[in-house]
């Protein structure tokens, strides 16, 4: 018999409320566990992965199910709601926010699989999918599917995942297989059960230590053809979430949550120490608040415009070039601005920032590490700039462009 869940931090049993069905309910549950996440941050960082009880806390909020369609019994939250929820979790702990962001993609991937296949794989809406999407593996064509071998980096959440999705180049008889759209070497995403994956404990990093983003290896595992994905083909579902770049949209929630947490922390410290009359402090706080407000507005304005077009039956091509470019640009800007805000606040507190009881050191390292992700790199600037100038983006998927289109 399963024990009744407890109120976070109390140990008191309460009736099981059942799975959440709305974004409001998921956000309410997330806010309830934020103090627990904050208390557990040091443990999360020390273990270099999310402890099992923290994973279950997150699962209980419903965050991992938020991308599943209503036709499946899921809440089908739009990208704006998803980002707000990731932002709230990251306010409690960045690694938990990062893993929630990655793990909640399961329902989004389901739309790129045939529905019977997806339902056979995802027997619970609260399953977690992890993995690296860039094609670094070797998938040999065999009858009925592929034999997959390879090693991938950055498997955020792989230590507690149910499924692992990995990019791989396609080979036939050991030779590169061209794609139907003219690419000389085709690639696909392959989804395998977690038990077919070897986790390699490489995750000793500057920051985001608690995300457990270890390397992982898959050796000669058969992947049925129906468990492969390409983002240019939606196999079930339609609307705003059935789009090729949907898995990138809620990523700004992590840096925005950290930046807000750092601002609140420093403001509370300044007031408690009665240092609010200091000119430098006033100017730094005001500058950081202005940058945060503008950056957050840019993220949500771009997503709201996208949602408006897609929910009315339009496509990404119906966005103006400026509107479409604003999506990846605002994401990148959120990562970079969060790091800048945390750095300035760290400097403002001077030696108070460097001691372990202060979260500033962890936030500084976490924002530094997350800015190494591709969504925060100059490749995004090049892609958006090239698109605006009618040239070829280096990373077209960040703009939702697939299939060799410019």
UniProtKB/TrEMBL annotation:
The record's annotation in InterPro entries points to: Acyl-CoA_DH_C, Acyl-CoA_Oxase/DH_mid-dom_sf, AcylCo_DH-like_C, AcylCoA_DH/ox_N, AcylCoA_DH/ox_N_sf, AcylCoA_DH/oxidase_NM_dom_sf
One example of the protein's molecular function in GO is: oxidoreductase activity, acting on the CH-CH group of donors
Q: Keywords of this protein's UniProt record, alphabetized?
A: Oxidoreductase
- Where the record annotates domain Acyl-CoA dehydrogenase/oxidase N-terminal, the positions are 26-107
- Pfam families cross-referenced by the UniProt entry: Acyl-CoA_dh_2, Acyl-CoA_dh_N
Region called Disordered, residue ranges: 1-23
Give the signal sequence positions: none
Q: Could you tell me which residue ranges the Acyl-CoA dehydrogenase C-terminal domain spans?
A: 255-377
Q: Which domain of life is it from?
A: Bacteria
List the SUPFAM superfamilies hit by this protein, alphabetically: Acyl-CoA dehydrogenase C-terminal domain-like (SSF47203), Acyl-CoA dehydrogenase NM domain-like (SSF56645)
Q: What is this protein called?
A: Acyl-CoA dehydrogenase
Q: Which organism is it from?
A: Amycolatopsis mongoliensis
At the highest ranks, the source species' classification is: Bacteria, Bacillati, Actinomycetota, Actinomycetes, Pseudonocardiales
